[in-house]
Amino acid sequence: MTFRQKHLLGIEPLHPEEIRTILDLADTYVDLNRSPTKHSDALAGMTQINMFFENSTRTQASFELAGKRLGADVMNMAMQASSIKKGETLIDTALTLNAMHPDLLVVRHPHSGAVDLLSQKVNCAVLNAGDGRHEHPTQALLDALTIRRAKGRLHRLNIAICGDIAHSRVARSNILLLHKMENRIRLVGPPTLMPSGISHFGVEVYDDMREGLKDVDVVMMLRLQKERMDGGFIPSEREYYHRYGLDAEKLAYAKDDAIVMHPGPMNRGVEIDGEIADDINRSVIQEQVEMGVAVRMAAMDLLARNLRDAGDKGVWV
């Protein structure tokens, strides 16, 4: 299996073969998670610390469950009540954690680049669970696995990513991954929610939902990230739903077998109609949650293998 990474900080450093390796291993973990036992010893004797500087129910729960199913000792640090609040720097926190000799560090942080900085200060594998507007690699990987299982392939598909592109690390990671796997990507949303320099992303851009969804294989909706907005990006939620919310009329422009995705949490009636979100024939939103545990198991398993190999060779720094 080809996977040479020391950390999983983003999609950008990954080669297509490494992406396939993660997804192939994750497929085996889907089967394990559906079995009566649900346990492996891939991380037996290893320690996993989850550090979430931003609240995230599903991502933190997914990483915690993934670690426990692999046999790791899992610790969740309550960062809201940590020494960071008392003035301790991120680097001091990293040095303190390093002294505890963890093997895997899972970090979510509101500032882009913070997870990369931590990875330079610790002697363990670091997984980025989302940093600012930068990246959210395991979300893109679980989305990729969901698409591959639903469509039977992960190349030469027409994929529309719709909504709040500007504030979304999920969109950035998905654009990077889907490009690497040779897909055609459309970004659909109001101009106020498109990032600057969008012309350099190698994507097609639409501000008309119906035109953007025409004949696509995958419709990936994004959460409207109001907590990251500091101005009038949209007139109102009602107007936003009218123009950019996914409903049956807009979805009809996509292919008949197009799947509907959303990274969650959803704002029903704002980004997506509740009936579409719950439509078992079109929506794969619950499958995304299931694939998230499997992908995080695969990523931690592969990083642990590299960690052990490096330790055996005496080269891990």
Instruction: Specify the overall morphology.
Output: globular
Number of helices: 11
- Quaternary state of the chains: single chain
Strand percent estimate: 5-15%
- What profile does the largest beta sheet have? 5 strands, parallel
Please provide a written account of the structure.
It contains 11 helices and 9 strands. It has 317 residues and is of the alpha/beta class. The longest helix has 29 residues, at 285-313. 44% of the residues are buried.
SSE layout and pairing:
Blueprint: H1 16-33, E1 47-52, H2 57-69, E2 73-77, H3 90-98, E3 104-109, H4 114-119, E4 125-131, H5 137-151, E5 158-162, H6 169-180, E6 184-188, E7 204-206, H7 209-213, E8 218-221, H8 237-244, H9 248-251, E9 259-261, H10 274-277, H11 285-313
Parallel strand pairs: 1-2, 1-3, 3-4, 5-6, 5-8, 6-7, 8-9
Helix pairs in contact: 1-5, 1-11, 2-11, 5-6, 5-11
Briefly, what is this?
With 317 residues, the chain is of the alpha/beta class.
List keywords for this structure.
9 strands; alpha/beta; 5-stranded parallel beta sheet; 317 residues
